[in-house]
Write the structure tokens for this entry.
Amino acid sequence: MGTLKHISWRLVNVVPVLVVVSVLTFVLGHLTPGDPIEAQFVRTHTAEQIDAIKLSYGLDLPVWRQYLNWVGDLFTAGGGNSIAQGREVFSILWPAFVNTLILTVAGVAICVVFGVLIGAVAGLNHGRLLDRLSMLVVQVGSNLSVYWFGLVLIWIFALRLQWLPVSGMESRGGGGFGDLVAHLVLPGFSAALIAMLVLARFTRLGIVQESNSDYVRTFESQGLPRRRIVGKHIGRNILAPIVNITGLEIGTLITGVIFVESVFNWPGIGTQLLNAVYGKDYVLIQGGVVLVAMCYLVVNLLTDVVVDVLNPRLRRA
Amino acid sequence: MTDVASLTTAEPAASATPPLLSVRDLAVEFQVDGEVHRAVDGIAFDIAEGETFALVGESGSGKTVTASAIIGLLPGNARVASGSIALQGDEILAQGRPTAVRFRGSRIGMIFQNPLSSLDPSFKIGNQLREIIGLHRPETTRRQQEETARTWLGHVGIGDADRVLNAYPHELSGGMRQRVMLALASLSQPALLIADEPTTSLDAVIQQQILDLLKSVTTETGSSLLIITHDFGVVSYIADRVAVMRAGRIVELDERDRVLSDPSHEYSRSLIAAVPEIGARLHLRELGLVNRLGPLDSLPPATRRRDVGRDTVPRAGDLLRLNDVSKEFVIGGLGTGLPRRRFSAVDEVSLSIRRGEVFGLIGESGSGKSTLARLIGGLHPVTSGTIAFDGHEIANLSKRRLRELRPRFQFVFQDATSSLNPRIRVGEQIVRPLLRFGKAASRKAAAARVREVLGLVNLPDSYASRFPHELSGGQRQRIGIARALALEPDLLILDEPTSALDVSTQATILNLLLDLKDELDLTYLFIGHNLAIIEFLCDRIGVLDNGALLETFDATELAAAERHPVTKALLGAVLPIDREP
């Protein structure tokens, strides 16, 4: 009961956040210098014609009317029409968004599996050589840039070893699921790198802290095997922080994905948005930003709910 | 008579039967920053079957390390340098690690100081009990384990076993959790039960219940009990024999009655004398000695009239007067997922504190005593009622007016460590409020005042340039007192200032407080949960229970027949040191 109320309250909270996001996006879009219509038509059309086009897009209206029109379009007209492509923004973005989602999910999976693994190995060997080595790797890795790391991966695995495809999402003519996975490995790793190392660090810290806790001592004093203490008690108690950090890191990861897409030529929303920026297509940019912001909110909401469910103190009251 | 040299190698045989546990020449070393530090330095003792053996000492004496060595839970940077520990003739130390693990739980059980964190917060009590039962008896079914768990909760005096089995640790009180811990450690019927300060963090009334349970459960299982404590009241209540530890060595080991009535070692004597006891003040007065803690022959005679406690006539007039003071907190509400409800922490409390007296406020944890102190100190706004300090109403005063009054009532908090800023030198921490409240005209004047107050609390000037972590617990509490005194307050609010300190440190701090009060004409509001300290220190006592002030009375009338049942329960829960041989 308490949890359900809690969740609905969180949901209600999403609304004002969305309003703020939409206002900010809109304002930013309009603050950028340059006029998309003029940029596109100034050589081919007369001033009257350009004004007529602006009129048809409603660009002559006061800014607040433009904002309201745009918000209305978000709900009813697929986010309005792209200035450069003339089609509904969401119908342009949707296929790209699905591709981005695929890459993000792959990134999250890599991040969680390897992050927890590295963290657990380091934490369970706290203070020993293995711990120090993994932490050194984590230290160094945290300072790599996504761009550079992606290029190095391509150079090693695609060019030198030729194990994996260089870029893109599928081989020419399509190749099914296995082909998709092969294409996902390198961009997935590049996107996951930073988040994975942060997660590893927190997992290690969680294990070290829980290992020193009083309840672990209780079970040790009863002779419970180490394996069981780690697997059941420590594992259960670091689950909530792991979920929490993962949720936060997905945000970082989405940002990273947008860069990774351009390095690996992945046909995702990042590529679309980059093109939109070049064309000053701010209707498309705004639509894309709102979409990404929605992802953040959904992830945060899910994280909060899962963390609450994992915490017995909040489960009933 | 046992002398120290013989204790390190062999204990005189207590009886003909072989001991249950035999510790010989045990030394444990810690490696800290490349330096080797001996925490336990060649100790020896035996525990007979069915015996309750107490290991007494102050923090750092090595008593917990000894227990950890016995159960094989020494931290990673510690190692047994020499010696032997034999349980029922089996050497524990010589065994490989797997065997030592097998000893745990099945033959040695242990309960710990902090019951609040000693159970896994994420699993229900039933789950944790079943897990341990299944570990010791793998052949049992889930249903049998559940039944055993229920039986054992009954053994430790838990009536509503079903509720407890289905509860998470945070849903139980500290006392209940310690009962569960006792069940957890005893259900395998170990030959030896180790209890490491099992009641230190519990209220006095609960403490006695837990000690009674320890007795009854070990009698039932036939276990011997090794109890580790710093409290001679606990020793007197439960132990058969006692070893007093200091700096890694046992300085005295004997029958309880002998140690308590006629301690042979200087250190044991001073430790026992440092314990405040009910009636000690009266006793000192009859002997014509000054009202301070310590061995009787070290106390000077009372020369001035006010040296003798209780006879001081507080000057007329109330310094502080509370009228129907209430404080409610709101819990839950919009956005928390919890229903919004009001929780009354302090409920229509009226009392007055006279100028120059020591007023003691006693209550169990959760009784609202700290909240009341904060209200008086103007740290929380009151919900209703009035608080008058020296004629000024402070309950709902503007921030500015309150600021002007603030230097006149100062706090000394329980946790001296966390109430000092760890990154600022202690001298500077005393200087800042002086400048801020305009009590010192210049930095130079403030520094002079710091030297003055450090002198008052018996610390050398040089300590002003130290950081809090460079001081011991007792020294930090002195700094806390110095900081409060620097502002020349009329009223000092002492919120359990000694409950985190060792017995001997506590005694010196309490003596210091008594000295300062005489010297500086202070008024104290002393908050505590230990009635013996309150009785020793205070002129009048107020008893707080569930936010309500049950009664106030003169400290001499503590034993009077008309006392409230709660007061009587608190008095009954004080474990006296039985000195009669």
Observations:
- Residues 226-264 of chain A form the longest helix (39 residues).
- The two ends of chain A are 8 Å apart (CA to CA).
- Chain A has a mean pLDDT of 84.
